[in-house]
Structure formats: C-alpha cells, structure tokens
Amino acid sequence: MTETSPKPTKSAVLSLNNIEVVYDHVSLAIKGVSxxxxxxxxxxxxxxxxxxxxxxxxxxxxxxxxxxxxxRRGEIQFLDRNLRSLSPQKRVELGIxxxxxxxxxxxxxxxxxxxxxxxxxxxxxxxxxxxxxxxTYFPRLxxxxxxxxxxxxxxxxxxxxIGRALMTQPKLLMLDEPSLGLAPFLVAEIFxxxxxxxxxxxxxxxLVEQNAIAALEIVSHGYLIESGRxxxxxxxxxxxxxxxxxxxxxxxAQAKNFHDIKHYRRRKxxxx
Length: 272
Prior knowledge:
By secondary structure, this protein is α/β, with parallel strands linked by helices. The chain has 2 domains: 10-95 and 172-184 and 201-241, Rossmann fold (3-Layer(aba) Sandwich); 104-169, no CATH class. It is 38% helix and 25% strand. Strands 6-7-8-3-9-10 form a 6-stranded mixed β-sheet, sandwiched between helices. Strands 2-1-4-5 form a 4-stranded antiparallel β-sheet, covered by helices on one side. Strand 4 (69-78) and strand 5 form a beta hairpin. It is globular and about 45 Å long. It starts with 11 loop residues before the first strand and ends in a 5-residue tail after the last helix.
C-alpha cells in the first residue's frame, strides 16, 4: 500500500518534521515522525498501545524530560516557532494544552478548585470567563462543582481534565486517550463536546486514540503510527474506507488460528 498524503487546506498550527525520541540515551521510541495539525483543524494519531502515540505528545508539550527522554533529531514547530529549546511552562504560555492519559485531576480538590488551579497563568478576569465557558460546555461539572473530584465518575473526571486544559486558553488541545476506561455513551458525549469546542472556538485538536472508530468520526485527518513510525496518513473518510484499516483497526479482524495471524501480518503491506 502506498502512503497517501492529505491535501492541506489550512496553514499548520503544529508541524513535526522527522522527529526522533530517545529514552535513557539508548532506547529509540519514535523514529522520523512527521505530522501536521491545521489551524482550527482536528487530527487523530492512531495506533496500538506502545506504538509511540503518547511519546509524540510529550515531545510536543515538553514532558519528556521528566521521563528521561529527549528529542534527538527533527523539528517541532508551533505557530512557526521552534519548540525544542522551550520549557513545558513556556509551551503552555504559547498555547499548548496537554490532557494526559488517565485524567490525573487533583482528587482532594473540588472541580471548581481544579479549574482555578489550572488558570495560574491568566488574569482573574480571564479565569472567571474561562470557568463560565467550561461549565457551559460541561454542565455536569457545574452540578458537581463543590464535590471532591476524587468522587466524580470516570467520565466526569475526563470532562474536568479537558476543562482544566481549556482554562489556559489554548490554541492547540492535545488529548491522550480520552476514551480510556469509559462506557461508549460517555465516549460519544465527550467526543461530541470536543467537536463543539473545535467548531465554536476554532481550537486546533490533536487526538491520540486506540479507539479508531470513535476518533475517525470527529477528525478530518488521521495518522497511523506503529513501532514508532508513521505508516499511513490520509483523510478520515479515506482511512475508514481503507480495507486494511477496516480489518485491523475498526474491529473487522477475525484471526482464529495461527494461519490467520500469519496472514494478518502479511496483509500489513504499508510496513514494507
């Protein structure tokens, strides 16, 4: 299969050019990854667990240092500015918000206090305005705003994690596995709200997901990463229509014995 490049329709707010990430100076995690997120667009980075999706996001947000990782080669451009020398805090100030896998809210604080804590880089006026906006998008959080966040449901905690990111007034929202551990109806609700925020705020979104079915319903383009390499990218519609994607990433695989598994590996023609 030949990798097909999507035709750009807008200028890119984020551009990764052939980046390489190494952990502990020896372990090569991602290899020559290139991708773009158009201004105001929604893009998915798809792949199995361990493929390098989260590493790519941490390279963008600057969180690799805490895990003894570094970008060894390549460029990361955000709003035409090279990010590699900038601290995570500076990247947040520039407009990058990273919602980590597993939500990681402050469980001993209320949702209201979580939102206030996330707005340290903004004025009080901005904090009040942004908090009202978060509660408009997530009315369930408003209802639970004075409860301890640790007692919220998984879906409510994910809404709070996204809400905290919105408090920084980002230009790019990066979401790492927002569907993880959630029931399908909650996934649909959260993804619908993400789409609404994208439309109404013009916020660019980079969505990392294993749930390709849900992700490809709301994004315009998708990239598939395997073993640290981008192996395919195209429009969301083209990816949904691709027979290999349908079979191996949209639930169509029916490997029942060893022969079927070998056939599965041979069918991954894009890796050759």
